[in-house]
Task: structure prediction
Amino acid sequence: MKPTRVTNGIRALRFAANEMTQADLAERIGVTRQTVIAIEQGRYSPSLEMAFQIARVFGVGLDDVFSYAPEDSPTGG
Amino acid sequence: MSYEEKNAWVFGFIAPIGYLVYVVLVLTQAGERPLDEANYVGPMLGTILGAIVVGILGGIVVGMLSGKDAGKSDQRDKQINRFGEYIGSAFLVMGALGALVLAWFEVPHFWIANVLYLGFVLQAILSTIAKLVAYRRGLHQW
Result:
């Protein structure tokens, strides 16, 4: 069971952004690479501020990066 | 593995090993005598100071092995740290309550000091385990 229902498309967005590395993204939002990995894998929900920072790096809206799974979905706990 | 997680691992080893050393020293000193007649203050101070020194040295080694990640801590590290301390604090409270009850009944200082020390050690161990689980499996949202 994942600890959060927040899912994201960061991995796909990174590849679409000239194959940006996790380290590059981490540096741009001011966190460790391990935190980016944890977010991508759904082991950590970023704060709203960090979520906005991530969306801004890719130049997209918050909804294009993150989504919230409904309760009856497999990731819904 | 992040710098803070490596530090948590180091601390996770130091706390139980330090306490084990203390127990062995006290039991050896007591010998045939009753346990509460053993000189426990020296070993207790020694292992507490030893754990602090080894912790600092461990932190330096972790920092050297972490390269440019040394000393880096972010929002997730801070949240995990708070979560671990919150979980571990239960044992600190239990140790304090245990010592209080022992003081009411005028139990020898040896037992009061040891209940407090055990509380600190259990707090350190449990909070470290909670942190490591949070690093590996994620922080659950309430």
Remarks:
- The first helix of chain A runs from residue 10 to 16.
- Residues 55 and 62 of chain A are 6 Å apart (CA to CA).
- Chain A touches chain B at residues 2-4, 30-35, 38, 42-47, 50 (CB under 8 Å).
